[in-house]
Amino acid sequence: MKEGLRQSMAWLHTWSGLLVCWVLLLVFAGGSASYFKEEISFWMMPELHAVEREPVPQAHAIERAVAYLQQQAPEAERWFITLPTARSTALRVGWIGAAPKAGAAGSPRSRFHSELLDARSGGKLAVRQTRGGEFLYRLHFDLHYMPVQWARWIVSICALFMLVAIVSGVITHKRIFKDFFTFRPRKGQRSWLDAHNAAAVLALPFHLMITYTGLVTLMFMIMPWGVQTAYQDKGGESAFFEEVFPSGAGRGKPAGVAAPLVALAPLAAQAQQHWQGAPLALLVVNHPGDAKATVVTRQKLATLSYLQPAMLFNGVTGVEQAAVGEQPSQTAVTRGVLYGLHMGHFADPWLRALFFLCGLSGYLMVATGALLWGVKTRQKQAKAIAQGARPGVGLRLVEALNLGVIAGLPIAFASYFWANRLLPLDLVQRPQMEINVFFAAWAVAAVLAQCRSSLGMWRLQLGAGAALFIGIPVLNVITTHSHLGVTLLLGRGPWPVAGFDLVMLALGAALALAERLLARRQRKPGASQPAARAAQAQAQALKETA
């Protein structure tokens, strides 16, 4: 390292960030939205906006759910009852259909069904089919249109590069905290570096935490060798997970003998009393209507750890059989805390809003870093072009990818919300069609960027994104009676909808401001000339001066 440690780290920081920056932009965008995935799903089901949001007694909701499941899925393999919460007031029921006969196709995921019920009446809610915020949550680590295992490997590798980029960036910028308070506008490369430093330092602890804990959530996929070695004679990885993270309590095999299911409301009350009144999140019934039926109640705690205790009951007699997860191992506690930090389920609305803003700062950090590389490389190549060299293909590719992802992703996200309100309600595979619109809009932006990655195209795509985001609250006014104006002026309507509209307006305003700044720059003399022509003119002026 003749050039020294900091210079070596600068090279590592540049390339470890640049090679994966476009995937990281998608991860940051989807992950930031995930902090409000319930609110996003609620907005994307406008039929729920008029449903009464007053709390319903837990026993009443459970009875209504059981009655519906006994009618719709009496022979199901498992039942799931997700109780209403402050963020999701609808009662959700799900079930896994009966296992297929030997040799027949059908995984548990393909046999899973889910419905939303009115917690008061127990009737099925007539809501549009949509993946809502769940799609955005899954997008940031499962991607789409590819096997889940491949996607998670891709995201894990990108997260490893991200961690290297963060650490090497801290080493490289010896005045990183001082530079945070320095911004020099209209200084070209210097301005982009200042913006990159500010976005990075603003939420540096969050960036380190979210990257490292994201890797922890997939640690057994990335580094499985320790578990495989220690448990090779004990049943492999499944035995390890059952011992350290017991979650399959009571599944077993059915007896094949019919037996009536015990009333679930008293079991839920017993579990809640055992947990000193803490609310329940989920009830699972394994093999309902069978002599070996079991009931699992899971606790809902706003704690840092992602681990949630559970109680196991006999599904026929109602006798308590076990309490699971109340004394977890230190390994489980450590991973549960790191996992919980990443998910943010413990956070109140204000803390989740802070996490959301930190996620957006991560998006800006990666975006400004990619743009900085393009500015620096363009300046270097402009000097070479002035001397007769040809511009590099790599620079054109990076600049097109920057435009197609940085400006194209907002277009895709906004188009997803527009599709939710404009696609016909009876459309076949409607949730997938919403997702297809997301990627189609992004593909159009990316293709246009490859065709022409000019300042005018930046303005066009930023302006399109701004118009789409600002138009979402207007679209909400047209398609539902529960919107920002009603909530703010009359005090009626759900606040999550108003909050969503406000965030859309803020994002649209930010994109519009960026477009205005580019327009001002484009109006400057010589701003529309290619970099090579500008460099040649500058070189000619220097010669004449000499």
Short structural summary:
It contains 21 helices and seven strands. The protein is of the alpha+beta class and 546 residues long.
What does this structure look like?
The protein is an alpha+beta fold and 546 residues long. Helices cover 60% and strands 7% of the residues. It is built from 21 helices and seven strands. It has a seven-stranded antiparallel β-sheet, with helices on one face. The longest helix has 38 residues, at 349-386. Mean pLDDT is 84; it is low at 527-546.
* Overall number of strands: 7
Q: What is the share of helical residues?
A: 55-70%
Number of helical elements: 21
For the termini, the CA-CA separation is: 39 Å
Main beta sheet strand tally, sense and closure: 7 strands, antiparallel
Strand order across the largest sheet: 3-2-1-4-5-6-7
Helix/strand-derived category reads alpha+beta
User: Globular, elongated, flat, extended or rod-shaped: what is the shape?
Assistant: globular
Rg, Å, rounded: 27 Å
The stretches of 5 or more residues where confidence is low (pLDDT under 50) are 527-546
Looking at this protein, list some descriptive labels.
546 residues
SSE layout:
Elements lengths: L4 H14 L2 H14 L2 H7 L14 H15 L5 E5 L8 E6 L15 E6 L14 H11 L5 H25 L3 H5 L8 H14 L1 H14 L1 H4 L2 H6 L6 H8 L19 H11 L5 E7 L7 E6 L10 E5 L5 E5 L5 H14 L5 H38 L6 H30 L7 H22 L3 H25 L4 H7 L4 H28 L8 H15 L1
Antiparallel strand pairs: 1-2, 1-4, 2-3, 4-5, 5-6, 6-7
Helix pairs in contact: 1-6, 2-5, 2-6, 2-15, 2-16, 3-5, 4-13, 6-9, 8-15, 9-14, 15-16, 15-21, 16-17, 16-18, 18-20, 19-20
